[in-house]
Automatic annotation (TrEMBL), chain A:
<dbReference type="InterPro" id="IPR050388">
    <property type="entry name" value="ABC_Ni/Peptide_Import"/>
</dbReference>
<dbReference type="InterPro" id="IPR027417">
    <property type="entry name" value="P-loop_NTPase"/>
</dbReference>
<dbReference type="InterPro" id="IPR003593">
    <property type="entry name" value="AAA+_ATPase"/>
</dbReference>
<dbReference type="Pfam" id="PF08352">
    <property type="entry name" value="oligo_HPY"/>
</dbReference>
<dbReference type="InterPro" id="IPR003439">
    <property type="entry name" value="ABC_transporter-like_ATP-bd"/>
</dbReference>
TrEMBL record, chain B:
<feature type="compositionally biased region" description="Low complexity">
    <location>
        <begin position="46"/>
        <end position="55"/>
    </location>
</feature>
<feature type="domain" description="Solute-binding protein family 5">
    <location>
        <begin position="165"/>
        <end position="525"/>
    </location>
</feature>
<dbReference type="InterPro" id="IPR023765">
    <property type="entry name" value="SBP_5_CS"/>
</dbReference>
<feature type="region of interest" description="Disordered">
    <location>
        <begin position="26"/>
        <end position="68"/>
    </location>
</feature>
<dbReference type="Pfam" id="PF00496">
    <property type="entry name" value="SBP_bac_5"/>
</dbReference>
UniProtKB/TrEMBL annotation, chain C:
<keyword id="KW-0812">Transmembrane</keyword>
<feature type="transmembrane region" description="Helical">
    <location>
        <begin position="12"/>
        <end position="31"/>
    </location>
</feature>
<comment type="similarity">
    <text>Belongs to the binding-protein-dependent transport system permease family.</text>
</comment>
<feature type="domain" description="ABC transmembrane type-1">
    <location>
        <begin position="97"/>
        <end position="320"/>
    </location>
</feature>
<dbReference type="Pfam" id="PF19300">
    <property type="entry name" value="BPD_transp_1_N"/>
</dbReference>
Automatic annotation (TrEMBL), chain D:
<keyword id="KW-0812">Transmembrane</keyword>
<keyword id="KW-0813">Transport</keyword>
<dbReference type="InterPro" id="IPR000515">
    <property type="entry name" value="MetI-like"/>
</dbReference>
<dbReference type="InterPro" id="IPR035906">
    <property type="entry name" value="MetI-like_sf"/>
</dbReference>
<dbReference type="InterPro" id="IPR025966">
    <property type="entry name" value="OppC_N"/>
</dbReference>
């Protein structure tokens, strides 16, 4: 599906300022995004100079084991990383002509053509982008909805935010969008007054219907604990769609659900994505989901995209041993002979001092070589389309027993190692 | 419980012999005239040779007057020392400079006697330690309630500041014979409700106290002991006759202290709850507002039979904490603060618009020693304890001089007080000798004191204990208990329930020795800790004679 | 189960508890040493007098008769007559109730108004000066005996500075209302009333201000880590709404529960506060009644307090159910 | 580490250490508590004076650093009325009474030190009593559920309906007749064995110390009795959850006796929240005790609350008499609360255990 011309440029190559070169359809270009957590144990590099792009109306998948930093990456996009975490560097270029015009003069360094670097925009504006620009569907619907407020109300809030946002120009928007303590107290004291309006409530009910919740009018007035898991996730999706976002980030949207429901939710997501032509960032550890949904894939490991490309690039001709390992770990239904070979060892702790400048996978890599002990840039991967790229020396050279690292190499200086 | 634990000798018990004796003595009616005999406080010149030390009791001729017997009784108690004689408590008031007022010996505060010194002094507020226990003047027995009801109610007789008897609702009173006294009721007196005072009201009021079939179970029945009842002698000359069960030498003193006159029809047409929340007296003030337990407000009774009061309103509220009362006085929230403790005196004195006025009260503070338990069954030991106590130091340091030392149960100025007795001097050697003599060397004794019941009670008890403890051959400690605890122990009627050694205060508003000695020291006394035939005899003799004074 | 039925259930339970309270209060008197007679009879009353009194008080009857009479009278709203003043206990007790309610309400208002914003600030500005200030204040607040605080306040503000009355209650709410039409100038009355209420309210309120601040802070910190907070922010909701409409509301659930349990402390605190300020309320009445062994008053007060406690707890339950719809389901 | 049947896992201990290291407040709390406990334990050694001996000649001495000019008032009767003469007297603080003396000339510091004993003993014994009562009730209710549970919990509701302070006042006030007799005078080993004496001679504090120490038994009984509910609630909750655990079911299936199950499984699992609650309750009970003795419902005169009540009458002339014991209470309660917070954060028993007064 990707007839790309400019294949050789790598979106990731750091060019200092201005939006990175990329595909014309790009709606989002992330470059060199790093998010770190500063904990008592030490600094954790959850996301390490992350690069990827998302195009109009596509589903971009990010896959990786749990603990590989997927979710943090997602939160970093919408700027919702809580302390002690902090986005330490990187740019998130988002395509929005109006926004670009608006800030071209004030914050020139944040604007490049139609693209704006949301990281360089003022906080208020960044927050205002949540909803209309980016919105998120979270992993656990139960904990992601406020238990003590009706589902309808919560969706209506999402609608209302955008309604008010449209009502007054972005420039004059205050931190509270003109909704401060005073208003809150008045509203909570007077009956039949609240943040949400009649119309936004009706819109919420429409949305519920849209995501396939039966008799939405009644369900809208029920509380989360009265919903089933699947229904809740549909409600979450409805809430995410309320702002008609350009980019919908779905963080493990199906993990908390049982298999039958998973299918429904995925179908729902795909349908909505197709009819509204939203771009979706699908974050999951489940290659099945990826295979089913995505156009392009990024395989994430230890806070980095270690291999990316079109679905076929990654699935049919993986280069990075980690990708191979992942794929290897899915049971193949066509071939009864079990070729399950789970990856040995655990995801690294991501503790700064324990990572060092090397391929982070080296300690688990069956094909680890001495070259792997230095920082690995992203190389074009031969097989597949131009999209295909990987952070692995094997893109450049064959595996060679000779420079293979001794199996106990990492035992000496690392706690985190495969248990043989 | 009651602030004025005055008692009446349980007349009937002792009077059986007395009446006979009286018949022989055959003297009558001379008690009627209040003026007569008030000066003869010390009859019986035999009391002059006082050089004799208490230990060797010299033989004295038998007295021939009631006063003589009472003085002899006091000497007896001084020598036998059934108590550790402590001090006479003072009533200390803080007083705003907005008013002019002199405190009374009997702890009562009559708003009638208050005069404004400034414009602000026209509306007077008094803060006392507690509020009334209901407004029925005959259904209580303590000073705080007296101070409230007595603004609106009056008795037949009253006392002036010094304690001399004066007529109020009675214009005249006399003994007809040894079992009858007669009151003449004042004319042109009306109750606040407008009804005018009749002899019936007086008779009814007396009967309401002494006869439990008339209305209530009055705790004042013991105040008028020996009074059997009253009836109207003649409505025309407005006389009421009171029948006594026998000669009661102090009947007028009793009437001068209790028996407030109520409106018969008003009482009979209302229930107890109402009577306890409303007032219909003849007094100089009438009730304007009553908040139970909070405040009582009076306004001047303009058609009072005597001159109307000088102040127009009088409000009484309460604060149990002395410091709170003083704070109110100093921040001008009140005009009279009752019971100002010594440590607050200087604070009041130093303020510009308040001052201290104090007066010796009718209350004596003492430590009773049970005569029936070791080591207190030895008079020598009891005297030793008295010698061990440094009374002057206690009065000087604990009471900051708000008290005067005593040598006998009866207070100075009371009828029957023995002026020849001096307080036990502090003499540790003598005390230790006496202890050896008593054979109780090495005794360990414990003084039980109520907490915060009397002025500085705990401090006094602890001081006494540590002073006695200084004796090489006695060790003493003090233990404090709730007053209610002590009361429940001393009121059971049998001496075994009492602590061996306890601090108590005793107020006596009749100004007559008998009302202290009889209940506390006579063998049939309700609260007695002592038993001695000689003393009982002296008391019986005294009660068999009419009183020279009132 | 609907809201109504939920409350009904609570109500029925409440009645049971009240009955328990009444019974305990009755039993209390008979396991207590000393007889009511000691109260009624004068110090030196004769044994005959004491006997007569015993009969008047019906103490000569068998226990169960006394109990049944007692219950029956109570049902008719008759709590007996004060041994001291012969005034109906119901009258005497209910006369004191407003003062105590006034005090408790004032203290609660002080507590809520101060503590909730304080708690939120301290939670949202964690590890900042504001937080440290709030935390130390609340620690101090829950550790200071309120009677001592009261004494110190009187010493400073009443005795030394003389800006507030030292003690006692001026007018009161009802009189203040009356003053609108009454002869006395409304303003003076109200100021006098509030002035007399101020120090006691602070004295009683401090502990709860501190307590609620602690609860709100810790609860808020817990809630802020909940998933829905992030989700709510993700949809771009204003921070004010996130904090107060979503987070605080859920924080209040545990807070309300604890406060329900702490009502007893509030009343107990009121008792001792009244003792410090000579505040003519139930507390003063109770202490007086205990010292004087005035049983009808003591029993009446305890019953009123117990009942009030039960009622308040029903209110709390209702509030609880409103804040957290899940409890009704359970 | 084992305490009776309960063993504390090394993880728990690690958490305690970690929390202790990370939180300065925890350290402050522990220091405060240790200081107070030591003061209470070795009172007869460190108290400069016998807390009971009074010296009326040196009454109301101010603390070091404060010099107090007070009016000494003398009075004399002049024809029936009293004349008061006041002259100024300067009272200097003395090193012998670093915190001054009260109206009886008793050393305030010594009384504060001995007061710590009363407060801590009442706090500890009261809490233990409350815990025993409450946990027993709570476990029974939670373990058997059904009727027993209802009955016990309704009882708890009833006793909750009596504010502890009010109930305590009522009980103590009404039983006060026996109070003095029940208050046990325990002999002070440090004194009777002469340890304290020799120590004091060594450091030059020759004053003899009281050989006995009054334990306000009624107060302990009452505060224990009025605070059991808090423990009952916690224990019940724990029991309810634990009894559903598989291993408990298994144990029951294996026919283990209820008592055994409760003691082997339920109790150990409930111990953490109980421990945390107990800590907070000690503080709550210390406050309660001080309130009681302030109101005069106490078995002993060596109590902070009692001293505050006494000092209250002297507030205007000698503020320190009421201030010192007040500060003592605040400090000790803060200390205990901090320790409680520390335990709660470290052991995270999931309770908001604020014991009531």
């Amino acid at each position: 599906m990707s007839e790309t011309t400019s294949g050789t440029e790598r979106a990731g190559t750091p060019t200092g300022d201005g939006a990175p070169e990329g595909h014309p359809d790009d709606v989002l270009r992330v470059r060199d995004l790093s998010t770190r957590f500063f904990t008592e144990e030490g600094q954790i590099n959850a996301v390490e100079s992350l690069d990827f792009t998302v195009r109009d109306g596509e589903v971009f998948g990010i896959v990786g084991e749990s603990g590989s930093g997927k979710s943090v990456a997602a939160l970093s996009l919408v700027d919702l990383v809580d302390s002690p975490g902090r986005i330490t560097s990187g740019e998130v270029w988002y395509r929005d002509a109006d926004l670009a015009d608006e800030f071209r003069d004030d914050v020139p360094e944040a604007v490049d053509g139609e693209f704006v670097d949301t990281r360089r925009l003022p906080e208020g504006v960044r927050r205002a982008l949540r909803g209309p620009a980016f919105s998120m569907v979270f992993q656990d619907p139960m904990s992601s909805l406020n238990p003590s407020i009706t589902v309808g109300e919560q969706i209506a809030e999402a609608v209302e935010v955008q309604r008010r946002a449209r009502a007054n120009p972005r420039r004059t928007r205050s931190r509270t969008q003109g909704y401060g303590m005073g208003r809150l107290i008045v509203d909570s004291l007077l009956p039949n007054r609240g943040y949400t309006s009649e119309s936004s409530m009706n819109r919420a009910i429409e949305l519920l219907e849209q995501v396939g919740i039966p008799d939405p009018a009644e369900r809208a007035h029920e509380y989360p604990h009265q919903f089933s898991g699947g229904m809740l996730q549909r409600a979450m999706i409805a809430q995410a769609l309320a702002g008609e976002p350009d980019v919908l980030i779905a963080d493990e949207p199906t993990t908390a659900l049982d298999v039958t429901i998973q299918a429904q939710i995925l179908n729902l997501l795909r349908d909505l994505q197709e009819e509204q032509d939203t771009s979706v960032v699908m974050i999951t550890h489940d290659l099945g989901v990826i295979a089913r949904m995505c156009n392009r894939v990024g395989v994430m490991y230890a806070g980095q995209i270690v291999e990316r490309g079109t679905l076929s690039d990654v699935f049919d001709s993986p280069v990075h041993p980690y990708t191979e390992g992942l794929i290897g770990s899915i049971p193949d239904l066509d071939d009864p002979a079990p070729r399950l070979q789970p990856i040995e060892g655990n995801v690294p702790s991501l503790l700064d001092e324990e990572m060092g400048g090397r391929c982070f996978f080296a300690d688990r890599c069956p094909k680890a070589m001495s070259d792997c002990l230095q920082p690995i840039p992203e190389y074009d991967a031969e097989p597949g389309t131009d999209e295909h790229a990987a952070r692995c020396v094997l893109t450049e050279r064959e595996y060679d027993e000779a420079d293979a690292l001794p199996p106990d190499h990492f035992d000496r200086n690392e706690e985190v190692r495969g248990d043989e | 419980m009651s602030d004025q634990d005055t008692s009446r000798r349980r007349f009937l018990q002792a009077a059986g012999s007395a009446t006979a004796a009286v018949a022989l003595a055959g003297c009558s009616g001379n008690g009627g005239d209040p003026t007569e005999g008030t000066l003869t406080t010390s009859a019986g010149g035999d009391e002059t040779q006082t050089t004799t030390s208490p230990e060797e009791t010299t033989e004295r001729p038998e007295p021939d007057t009631r006063d003589g017997f009472l003085q002899r009784a006091n000497r007896h108690t001084h020598e036998q020392a059934p108590w550790v004689f402590l001090h006479r408590q003072y009533s200390v008031y803080g007083q705003s400079s907005d008013i002019e007022w002199q405190p009374r010996t009997d702890e009562r505060v009559a708003a009638y006697a208050i005069e404004p010194a400034t414009d602000a002094g026209d509306d007077v507020v008094m803060t006392q330690s507690q509020m009334d226990s209901g407004l029925d003047p005959q259904d209580h027995r303590e000073t705080p309630t007296d101070n409230i009801v007595l603004q609106a109610y009056e008795g037949l007789l009253e006392r002036d500041r010094e304690g001399a008897i004066v007529e109020t609702l009675a214009t005249d009173y006399e003994r007809l014979d040894e079992t009858t006294v007669q009151f003449t009721v004042r004319d042109n007196v009306s109750f606040h409700s407008g009804d005018s005072l009749t002899p019936e009201d007086v008779a009814f009021s007396i009967n309401r106290i002494v006869d439990s079939d008339v209305g209530i179970e009055s705790p004042q029945v013991d105040q008028l002991i020996g009074v059997e009842g009253a009836e109207v002698a003649s409505s025309d000359d407005r006389t009421v006759n009171v029948n006594l069960s026998g000669l009661n030498p102090i009947v007028f003193a009793s009437f001068a202290t209790y028996c407030d006159v109520m409106n018969k029809s008003w009482v009979e047409s209302n229930d107890q709850a109402y009577i306890n929340q409303n007032m219909d007296g003849t007094g100089p003030f009438e009730l304007s507002n009553y908040e139970q337990g909070v405040a009582v407000e009076f306004q001047r009774n303009d058609d009072y039979w005597d001159d109307p009061a000088a102040i127009s309103t009088f409000t009484i509220n309460s604060a149990s904490e002395s410091s709170t009362r003083v704070n109110r006085l100093l921040s001008d929230e009140t005009d009279i603060a009752v019971n100002v403790p010594p440590q607050e005196v200087s604070r009041v004195e130093n303020s510009d618009d308040a001052s201290i006025s104090a007066v010796p009260s009718t209350r004596v503070i003492f430590n009773a020693m049970r005569y029936d338990v070791e080591p207190f069954d030895s008079p020598a030991f009891r005297r030793a304890v008295n010698h061990a106590v440094d009374l002057d130091s206690i009065i000087e340091n604990v009471l900051q001089t708000f008290g005067s030392p005593t040598a006998q149960p009866t207070l100075e100025g009371f009828f029957g007080h023995n002026e020849d007795l001096d307080p036990y001097p502090r003499d540790l050697e003598r005390a230790e000798e006496l202890v050896e003599e008593s054979g109780y060397a090495g005794a360990e004794i414990e003084l039980v004191t109520p907490i915060g019941r009397y002025l500085k009670d705990v401090e006094i008890a602890q001081a006494v204990a540590s002073q006695v403890d200084e004796l090489s051959n006695v060790s003493a400690t003090a233990r404090q208990v709730e007053f209610s605890t002590l009361v429940s122990q001393v009121t059971t009627g049998n001496i075994e329930d009492k602590p061996d050694w306890y601090l108590l205060g005793w107020g006596n508003a009749t100004f007559d020795a008998i009302q202290t000695i009889q209940p506390l020291l006579a063998s049939d006394g309700a609260l007695t800790s002592y038993k001695n035939d000689e003393l009982d005899r002296l008391l019986d003799e005294a009660q068999s004679l009419p009183s020279e004074s009132n | 189960m609907g809201y109504g039925r939920f409350l009904l259930k609570r109500g029925v339970q409440g009645v049971g508890v009240v009955w328990g309270v009444v019974t305990v209060v009755f039993i209390l008197r008979f396991i207590t040493p000393g007889s009511p007679i000691d109260t009624v009879a004068p110090l030196d009353a004769s044994q005959e007098t004491r006997q007569r009194i015993a009969e008047d008080l019906g103490l000569d009857q068998p226990l169960y008769v006394q109990y049944l009479d007692y219950l029956w009278e109570l049902l008719q709203g008759n709590m007996g007559y004060s041994y001291i003043s012969s005034i109906p206990a119901s009258v005497q007790v209910f006369q004191k109730l407003p003062a105590t309610l006034e005090l408790a309400v004032a203290a609660s208002v002080v507590a809520v108004v101060i503590s909730i914003p304080l708690g939120v600030i301290s939670a949202t500005r964690r590890h900042q000066p504001a937080d440290y200030a709030a935390t130390s204040f609340s620690l101090l607040g829950i550790s200071t005996p309120n009677f001592w605080l009261g004494i110190m306040l009187v010493l400073v503000f009443a005795v030394e500075l003389n800006v507030f009355p030292t003690s006692g209650r001026a007018y009161g709410f009802m009189q203040s209302l009356a003053a609108i039409t009454g002869p006395e100038p409304f303003f003076t009355v109200v100021t006098a009333w509030l002035a007399s209420l101020f120090l006691p309210a602070i004295t009683l309120g401090t502990y709860f201000t501190a307590l609620i601040t602690r609860l709100v802070r810790s609860g808020m910190l817990d809630e802020l880590s909940e998933g829905y907070v992030r989700a709510t922010r993700a949809k771009g909701l204003p921070e004010t709404l996130v904090r107060y409409k979503h987070v605080l509301r859920n924080t209040l659930v545990p807070v309300v529960t604890v406060l329900g349990l702490q009502l007893g402390t509030l009343i107990g605190g009121a008792v001792i506060t009244e003792a410090v300020f000579a505040w003519p309320g139930l507390g003063t009445e109770i202490i007086r009644a205990i010292n004087a062994r005035d049983w009808p008053i003591l029993q009446g007060s305890l019953i009123v307090i117990g009942t009030g406690f039960v009622l308040l707890n029903i209110v709390v339950d209702a509030l609880y159910a409103y804040l957290d719809p899940r409890v009704i389901a359970e | 580490m084992k305490i009776g049947p309960i063993s504390i896992s090394p993880r728990t201990i690690r958490n305690l250490r970690k929390e202790f290291r990370s939180s300065g407040l925890a350290r402050i709390g522990v220091v405060l508590v240790v200081v107070i406990v030591l003061a209470a334990a070795f009172a007869p050694m460190i108290a400069p004076h016998n807390p009971r001996t009074q010296n009326l000649d040196r009454a109301q001495l101010p603390p070091l650093g404060f010099t107090d000019t007070e009016q000494r008032t003398s009075t004399e009767m002049v024809n029936g009325s009293v004349q008061t003469v006041t002259e100024n007297v300067t009272v200097n603080a003395t090193a012998q009474h670093p915190l001054g003396t009260n109206s009886l000339g008793q050393d305030i510091l010594s009384r504060a030190i001995y007061g710590a004993r009363t407060s801590l003993l009442v706090g500890l014994f009261g809490t233990v009593l409350a815990a025993l009562l409450g946990v027993t009730v709570g476990l029974t209710a939670g373990y058997y559920r059904g009727r027993i549970d209802d009955a016990l919990m309704r009882t708890a509701d009833v006793s909750l309906a009596f504010p502890s302070l009010v109930l305590a006042i009522a009980l103590i006030g009404l039983f006060s007749r026996f109070q003095a007799d029940v208050a046990i005078a325990i002999t002070d080993p440090l004194v009777t064995t002469g340890v304290a004496g020799s120590f004091r001679d060594a450091v030059g504090l020759p004053t003899p110390m009281p050989e006995t120490f009054v334990l306000p038994t009624v107060v302990i009984l009452v505060v224990g009795f009025v605070n059991w509910v808090w423990f009952a609630r916690i224990a019940r909750g724990e029991a309810l959850s634990v009894r559903e655990e598989e291993y408990v079911k298994a144990a029951r299936a294996l026919g283990a006796s209820d008592v055994r199950i409760v003691f082997r499984h339920v109790l150990p699992n409930s111990i953490t929240p109980i421990l945390v609650l107990a800590t907070i309750q000690v503080a709550a009970i210390i406050l309660l005790e001080s309130a009681l003795s302030f109101l005069g419902f106490s078995g002993t005169t060596l109590s902070w609350g009692f001293d505050i009540a006494q000092g209250r009458d002297y507030l205007s002339s000698s503020w320190w008499i009421a201030t010192v014991p007040g500060i003592a209470i605040v400090l000790s309660v803060i200390g205990i609360n901090l320790v409680g917070d520390w335990l709660r954060d470290a052991l995270d028993p999931g309770i908001e255990g604020e014991g009531g007064m």
